Amino acid sequence: xxxxxxxxxxxxxxxxxxxxxxxxxxxxxxxxxxxxxxxxxxxxxxxxxxxxxxxxxxxxxxxxxxxxxxxxxxxxxxxxxxxxxxxxxxxxxxxxxxxxxxxxxxxxxxxxxxxxxxxxxxxxxxxxxxxxxxxxxxxxxxxxxxxxxxxxxxxxxxxxxxxxxxxxxxxxxxxxxxxxxxxxxxxxxxxxxxxxxxxxxxxxxxxxxxxxxxxxxxxxxxxxxxxxxxxxxxxxxxxxxxxxxxxxxxxxxxxxxxxxxxxxxxxxxxxxxxxxxxxxxxxxxxxxxxxxxxxxxxxxxxxxxxxxxxxxxxxxxxxxxxxxxxxxxxxxxxxxxxxxxxxxxxxxxxxxxxxxxxxxxxxxxxxxxxxxxxxxxxxxxxxx
Amino acid sequence: xxxxxxxxxxxxxxxxxxxxxxxxxxxxxxxxxxxxxxxxxxxxxxxxxxxxxxxxxxxxxxxxxxxxxxxxxxxxxxxxxxxxxxxxxxxxxxxxxxxxxxxxxxxxxxxxxxxxxxxxxxxxxxxxxxxxxxxxxxxxxxxxxxxxxxxxxxxxxxxxxxxxxxxxxxxxxxxxxxxxxxxxxxxxxxxxxxxxxxxxxxxxxxxxxxxxxxxxxxxxxxxxxxxxxxxxxxxxxxxxxxxxxxxxxxxxxxxxxxxxxxxxxxxxxxxxxxxxxxxxxxxxxxxxxxxxxxxxxxxxxxxxxxxxxxxxxxxxxxxxxxxxxxxxxxxxxxxxxxxxxxxxxxxxxxxxxx
Lengths: 384, 354
Hints:
The structure holds two protein chains of two kinds.
Chain A: H1 16-27, E1 32-36, E2 45-51, E3 54-60, E4 66-70, E5 84-86, E6 90-92, E7 99-101, E8 106-108, H2 112-116, E9 128-134, E10 137-141, H3 149-153, E11 169-170, E12 176-180, H4 184-192, E13 214-218, E14 221-226, H5 230-233, E15 253-254, E16 257-258, E17 262-266, E18 270-280, E19 283-292, H6 297-314, H7 331-334, H8 337-352, H9 367-379
Antiparallel strand pairs in A: 1-10, 2-3, 2-5, 3-4, 4-9, 6-7, 7-8, 9-10, 11-19, 12-19, 13-14, 14-15, 16-17, 17-18, 18-19
Helix pairs in contact in A: 4-8, 4-9
Chain B: E1 7-17, E2 22-28, E3 44-51, E4 54-61, E5 73-77, H1 83-91, E6 97-104, E7 117-124, H2 128-141, E8 146-153, H3 162-171, E9 176-182, E10 195-196, H4 201-210, E11 217-225, H5 228-238, E12 246-251, E13 266-272, E14 275-281, H6 287-293, E15 311-316, E16 319-321, H7 329-333, E17 336-338, E18 342-344, E19 348-352
Parallel strand pairs in B: 7-8, 7-11, 8-9, 9-10, 11-12, 13-19
Antiparallel strand pairs in B: 1-2, 1-6, 2-5, 3-4, 3-6, 13-14, 15-17, 15-19, 16-18
């Protein structure tokens, strides 16, 4: 059995220098998640997103096509617009009221004659970025000439599950966002670590057969699928907590991690996203949203009632017993796998600064962790 | 110059359309000419006929996709009193040999395996022919893209290529949609249509609102008679569509003709087939006419500024074009002219046929 050693130095998870290089060479050069397609669905509506070093806004024209521009006034560089909102036909910089149309053309400069004489406005349009929709998500790329999103995500499509997110509806309760006091790669490594599933989540994710899981890479993107265990599979229709969204012959948990830090999680009952956004060397934001079947509330109620019996007996519970709880909301007792993951990530990050920190061998089920580190090195140009 | 010369092609077969009011003519392209006659979806062919002792030239859009294995073909609708369209409909049959100039035209859609776009097509009447070639090319060779068509006709009896449109739609229901617009739907009509009227602002707005672009690289193609193209373009631009995303081709002649300039007598240096000639242009004469009078054989076809067969580059001097539908603004900025529409406005011209 080949034992792999981890490839990255501790500084990769703690230093400002590594963080800056990743912002520049990874997050500024890849397609970045910006929201669900519903977020910009009316002409004039806009959102902004940070894509590595770039703040980009996305606005819909009256032709219902999205345009993306770097959120920088061409005059002095002030951010043109704020996080979300709606405009009519023009975008005006708050600093000196330079105004652009929805194509990014500079259309007016206050007191142009007195202040500037003549300005060639055609050279001062907003700088465009690339935008597209994929699997119901809006993505932007800072480079307007970047390869198409079909080229970037095309190879993963056969491997990420049969879900058709465009036909599902957003379930608002799944829209959550939280910060983890750990480097973003710690969070990714946790997401793609197959070995931990049977251990950290021994009582929270045991409805899937981790040992039968299949994983591989498509370029920098990680693919993962695992089937339901027999106890969950048998008479499964009475055990799903929400109406089924995929065909039975495609059952299982489809949990890819697209590059960089774009996690998807599809199951028999729904489809979720897990977006990892680096905020600092040791701080990361995770944003979750999810979609479920476009069925009536009554369908959901029936399914939830039908399945409650099974889940009561099947027994989701915490890793630690209640009497070991360190507080009322100890994540290791609560029986929620997300809390368990956050706990593990933060505990790992804390140890990184210890002079005695040293990693042990990587398990077969952790080989993906090492592979992700290799992808990082490749993107930073350090892979020789 | 083989791209601008006529070649004899044999008719492989014909098919009557819309109750004999139109005809699809398929051509057998021999192996030796396969490369010469390779076409891009949206391009057209020029034909030369001798009818009642007179030479007639016409251009017709290719109505098949180069990606579906279909033969090179055109679909010609009868025009009232039309010499060539009725000749083709009345007499064209399998085995006939016709003079055909290889495909050309810049109203094209080139599909790409990894290209991801939403294509909107706006057509009316026989304007469907290049649009059908484009639409079926997208479905055959651009698997990540989407397409929506608004197609105007009098009623279901005048819808060209209806069966083929339905077939491509049934094969790709997730990626495309077809919206029929009838100006005079029959009272007893049982045929499904989307809206009554013509392809105008409310129709265009509804098409886009009901089918917003999923792939965000949206492109718009318009092919209709008379003033339809300009009208559709104006509507699209009022909806914030940038001009560079709108692609148009007109048919049936009538575009805008600008007769405000008379032109002057001039001397032109004309390069054709690699040889340079000096050609005198009389006042009011077009560059094409002058070249023909001088004994040259420059390429041309429709002589109304629509087809682009007579296109050349103006390397020096200035001209006024009476009509210029075959050229985009960016072609003109690079010096392209339609010689059949160009009157000299400077005393010396340098014209080069590509």
